[in-house]
């Protein structure tokens, strides 16, 4: 009944079509790992219940770099998908090109303004117009640990950098891969997000990645961030190059590796493998970032196809922000709801911690957009920074050269 009411409301919002005329939605996304696909099914089922079919357009590749390339090609050939998973500055770029449908009627009817915090609205709206529906809020500064290995080695979740290095050392000495990692630029950058925050603190993070302040980018603190990245490189196994992030998570799940530094989509993989937080795996904030939330929010932008938002796009946008969907989806995905007015008893302990921290940070204005996941600076700058971080992680640059290259990358691409 609730679904029926939701459908009727969505249709009433946008005009004359009836459920019988509903068309498919074609959705471009990069949710191809097991936990991600399970979460996506929650959305597919929700729409299916409203009589709306789903055409899947998956483009593998965490962080969405490949998906954004495919999107550009589709739009250029005049064939934009109905809805597209997008992050931060990419949404703003497409909105500035006038490519996105106006979601204001749906947002106003459902009161999005009142329940979605400003830091998320900053990316979901453009010139006062809603252009994307936020599905969730992820956070990148998490560590995932194999509970059994930590117990065997008598290790507690470390509280600071030295403690983390000591724990990595102990795991390596015991014959485990200390740090499960996949050498892909966006994964290197995800680690870098957390290391930078831990090393320099929130002001440093803000000035370097969001304000792109040259002195901060060129600072000794930045050199120290790179030094720490080199230290972490020493705890990664030899086969890390090119490995997908979910295969790195599988190494922790399969008792091969002790830790992974990754956003909380990794939790979706643990859950999908039947593991329980606190028992089989542990979640904790990267040491030194206990009070920080580096965030990225997956949002669905609707491509303007006929001058007005279509019935199916309206139904999709509305379903995404419904309280029931926000809980059901994020429980599986590993993220937390994008709206701050929900009871989250249904989330596990990591999710409840994440939601409380997200709400507190949103309230205090201390939510920091993830550089690695497109919420700190535009794609051109982000990609140029990726290149530097990855070249350094692979030993091509020492820390001093990396700092110089980072400054140059920003100068050229900002
Ligand atoms: C997205 C997540 C996704 C992850 C790995 C991130 O950029 O926000 O939803 O699970 O990439 O694919």
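-> sequence recovered:
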């Amino acid at each position: 009944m609730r679904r029926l009411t939701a459908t009727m409301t969505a249709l009433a919002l946008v005009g004359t079509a009836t459920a019988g005329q509903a068309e498919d939605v074609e959705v471009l996304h990069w949710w191809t790992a097991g936990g991600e696909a399970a979460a996506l099914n929650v959305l597919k089922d929700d729409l299916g219940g409203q009589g709306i079919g789903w055409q899947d357009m998956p483009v593998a590749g965490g962080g969405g770099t490949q998906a954004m390339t495919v999107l550009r090609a589709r739009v250029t050939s005049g064939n934009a998908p109905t809805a597209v998973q997008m992050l931060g500055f990419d949404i703003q770029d497409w909105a500035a090109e006038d490519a996105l449908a106006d979601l204001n009627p749906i947002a106003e009817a459902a009161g999005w303004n009142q329940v979605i915090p400003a830091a998320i609205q900053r990316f979901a709206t453009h010139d006062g117009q809603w252009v994307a529906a936020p599905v969730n809020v992820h956070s990148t500064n998490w560590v995932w640990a194999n509970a059994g290995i930590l117990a065997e080695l008598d290790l507690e979740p470390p509280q600071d950098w030295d403690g983390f290095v000591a724990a990595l050392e102990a795991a390596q000495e015991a014959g485990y891969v200390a740090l499960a990692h996949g050498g892909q630029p966006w994964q290197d950058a995800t680690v870098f997000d957390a290391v930078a925050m831990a090393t320099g603190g929130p002001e440093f993070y803000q000035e370097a990645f969001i304000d792109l302040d040259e002195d901060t980018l060129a600072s000794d603190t930045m050199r120290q961030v790179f030094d720490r990245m080199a230290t972490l490189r020493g705890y990664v196994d030899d086969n890390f190059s090119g490995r997908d992030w979910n295969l790195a998570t599988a190494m922790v799940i399969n008792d091969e590796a002790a830790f992974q530094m990754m956003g909380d989509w990794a939790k979706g993989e643990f859950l999908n493998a039947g593991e329980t937080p606190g028992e089989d795996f542990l979640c904790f904030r990267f040491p030194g970032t206990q009070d920080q939330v580096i965030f990225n929010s997956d949002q669905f932008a609707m491509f303007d196809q006929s001058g007005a938002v279509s019935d199916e796009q309206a139904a999709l946008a509305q379903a995404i922000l419904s309280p029931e969907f926000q809980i059901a989806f994020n429980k599986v995905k590993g993220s937390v709801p994008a709206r701050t007015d929900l009871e989250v008893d249904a989330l596990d302990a990591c999710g409840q911690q994440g939601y409380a921290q997200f709400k507190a940070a949103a309230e205090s204005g201390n939510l920091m957009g993830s550089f690695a996941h497109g919420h700190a600076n535009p794609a051109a700058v982000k990609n140029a920074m990726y290149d530097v971080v990855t070249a350094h992680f692979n030993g091509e640059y020492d820390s001093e050269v990396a700092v110089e290259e980072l400054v140059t990358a920003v100068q050229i691409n900002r």
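The longest helix spans residues 185-210.
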